[in-house]
Design brief:
Keywords: Leucine-rich repeat, Repeat, Signal. InterPro entries: CDIRP, LRR_dom_sf. This protein has 626 residues and is mainly beta. The protein is 9% helix and 32% strand. The protein has five helices and 44 strands. The chain has a 14-stranded mixed beta sheet, with helices on one face. A hairpin with a 5-residue loop joins strand 36 and strand 37. The chain is globular.
Length: 626
């Protein structure tokens, strides 16, 4: 009895490799290409193609970088091994059978003419980890996809599907399904099976081809179904990338208006103005003064008929950046939430009107001048770089999260009410003072190239401060580094791996950086896990070690200051026309320099290590070169 059981176990062990092989990956493809002809196929390196195909070296890489040409020996082709990719390009696929392929990630089949090499059905239920499927123009009648939780891209346009179920495809976000035969009630069932993308990125479905020369579009998606998809954060589109309102949709254009004037030439060739316009759900818009031509890069291109255009309808978002505007009036559409009118060099008039719902406003590089920010109580993102915008009503923006006002002539910046502010970009404004202690949510600060003598901070979320080319020194520099929070890598998913303080510019052009960050200040910052950096004129970053020691002078009232770093010896406050002379302890002159300005720089490499005295006029300063 015992020996019989032992022999049975031994027999099973001997058969185990064959059993494992039998249960391994296996996909069978059938081609309609005649025996002896060529087909193209791409698989991953670990997959094994049966001898039904013979590699034809004369065609290697003729279709794609990893796609080989094969001679057809038999029309039924088995693929085994560990299968992660199958791309049946120029294969003339006629049927597909997947027995097991748990690691298959990508399956693509080429498009083909109607009535040729049809595939009746495709079952991907044995591919739980597949992420991309493309079988288009195959007259496919059935496809099984339910439960494919990793699937993100599905391309099945140009088939004969009358139903589609994507339940359980929780990661799905792009679907091409136009030119099928899915109607009611099956279209409703498909919409119901869509995974919800609420609180995720928007999903997109190309559901219908409206191109007039095509007559084989059989899908019917109603306006109600479009709304149901939208409720799940899916956008329904046509094959030419236009949003599709749905079958039976009744157009509704409200009385709201936005008026624009452009200097684009009318009547001299075909001049198009690109406008990114988004209406509210179930609302439409029209443009007077231009005829719609096409859509590209998220904008609709209109052939101009007049320099004065009127956009009618309840518009939520308008992008008219770089359209040569001279006048823009949004007072007739107080529901507007996003306005991008940047890069209009002649736009000197922006009419707001009554209080708006604007959340995002970009006027950068458009000289719009005065904006009454009190009319924009909901504004969260303001980009007004080089816009000649005065800051007097900025304090009314209590919801502001991001501000870019670089290049404006603002001597002061009142952010006392901006408690939600996360990012501030205020470089090259001529700022004399800015108090950021009322901004506890700040993450990024850029205030370089100003005249600041202090920079008060009070945010424990900071990870980037750029403040070179200012006049911060002494106790105020120490207060700045002491106010930096201790940085912890990974604590904030939006933060980089390293916090950075860029505090000094090394090129001295057009004038020397007047910040004075001492070695002791650098040590305080680095102890909090901050990298202290300098930049050159090309914005190349380098570690900054700080100035050694304090202000050095034998005369407490002296205007001459000496700063020493491993990279340079800097003398400031030199009277006009004075000569700088360096003596060793025996009184021998070892270096002399005629200063052409109030600042002089000596390279330590030009002087041997030792103790020296530096003479500037009637003043003598000690200097140690290590």
């Amino acid at each position: 009895m015992y020996k019989t059981l032992l022999r049975t176990l031994l027999s099973l062990l001997l058969c185990l490799p064959a059993l494992l092989y039998a249960e391994g990956d296996k996909v069978t493809l059938r081609t309609s290409a005649p025996v002896g002809s060529q087909v193209a196929l791409a698989v991953n390196d670990e997959a094994i193609i049966s001898d039904a195909l013979q590699l034809d070296h004369s065609g290697v890489n003729a279709v794609g970088n990893d796609c080989n040409w094969y001679k057809v020996i038999r029309q039924e082709v088995e693929i085994t091994g560990s299968i992660t990719k199958i791309e049946a390009t120029s294969f003339r696929l006629a049927s597909l059978q997947i027995e097991q392929a748990p690691d298959l990630d990508v399956f693509f089949s080429e498009e083909r003419d109607r009535g040729k090499q049809t595939i009746q059905e495709a079952d991907f239920s044995m591919c739980p980890n597949i992420t991309k499927i493309g079988i288009q123009m195959a007259e496919l009648k059935q496809i099984k996809l339910q439960g494919l939780a990793q699937l993100s891209l599905l391309g099945i346009g140009g088939n004969n599907l009358s139903a589609l179920d994507v339940s359980g495809c929780d990661n799905l976000n792009v679907i091409f399904m136009h030119r099928n035969q899915i109607k009611e009630p099956e279209m409703g069932a498909f919409i119901a099976s869509l995974p919800s993308r609420v609180d995720q990125s928007t999903g997109y479905i190309v559901v219908i081809d409206t191109y007039p020369s095509l007559t084989d579009e059989g899908n019917v998606c109603t306006a109600k179904q479009v709304r149901q998809a939208r409720d799940k954060n899916w956008i329904i589109k046509t094959a030419d990338n236009e949003e599709y309102p749905g079958s039976g949709y009744q157009q509704h254009i409200s009385d709201e208006t936005i008026r624009l004037t452009t200097t684009l030439t009318i009547g001299q060739g075909e001049n198009y103005i690109p406008l990114g316009i988004e209406a509210y759900p179930d609302e439409d818009f029209e443009v007077e003064g231009g005829t719609y031509h096409s859509t590209a890069n998220g904008r609709r291109y209109y052939l101009l008929e007049s320099p004065n255009l009127v956009i009618r309808g309840k518009v939520r978002s308008l992008n008219c950046g770089g359209t040569y505007l001279t006048h823009l009036d949004i007072s007739g559409n107080p529901e507007l939430e996003t306005l991008l009118c940047d890069d209009n060099k002649q736009l000197q008039s922006l009419v707001l009107g009554t209080p708006h719902k604007l959340k995002t406003l970009n006027t950068s590089d458009s000289p719009v001048g005065d904006i009454d920010f009190s009319l924009l109580p909901s504004l969260e993102y303001l980009y007004c770089r080089n816009s000649q915008v005065p800051p007097r009503s900025l304090a009314s923006l209590t919801q502001l999260k991001e501000l870019n006002c670089s290049g404006n002539a603002w001597s002061t910046l009142d952010l006392s009410q901006a408690t939600q502010l996360e990012k501030l970009f205020a470089a090259g404004c001529g700022l004399l003072k800015v108090d950021l202690t009322h901004c506890p949510n700040l993450r990024e600060v850029q205030v370089h190239v100003n005249y600041l003598r202090e920079l008060p901070l009070a945010s424990d979320k900071l990870y980037s401060v750029i403040a070179f080319d200012n006049e911060i020194s002494g106790e105020q520099m120490t207060h700045l580094v002491e106010s930096l929070p201790t940085f912890e890598t990974g604590a904030d998913p939006d933060a980089p791996e390293q916090a950075e303080l860029i505090i000094f510019r090394t090129d001295n052009q057009p004038e020397a950086d007047k910040n004075r960050c001492m070695t002791s200040d650098v040590q305080i910052a680095t102890a909090k896990n901050w990298a202290v950096l300098s930049v050159d004129m090309d914005y190349n970053k380098s570690p900054y070690s700080g100035l050694q020691g304090d202000h050095i002078s034998l005369c407490p009232t002296s205007a001459v200051s000496l700063y020493v770093t491993p990279e340079e010896v800097r003398i400031e406050g030199i009277p006009h026309g004075e000569t700088i002379t360096l003596y060793d302890l025996s009184g021998v002159i070892v270096y002399s320099l005629a200063a052409s300005s109030g600042t002089a720089v000596i390279s330590p490499d030009a002087i041997p290590s030792g103790i020296y005295y530096l003479s500037v006029g009637e003043e003598v300063l000690p200097l140690i070169i290590r």
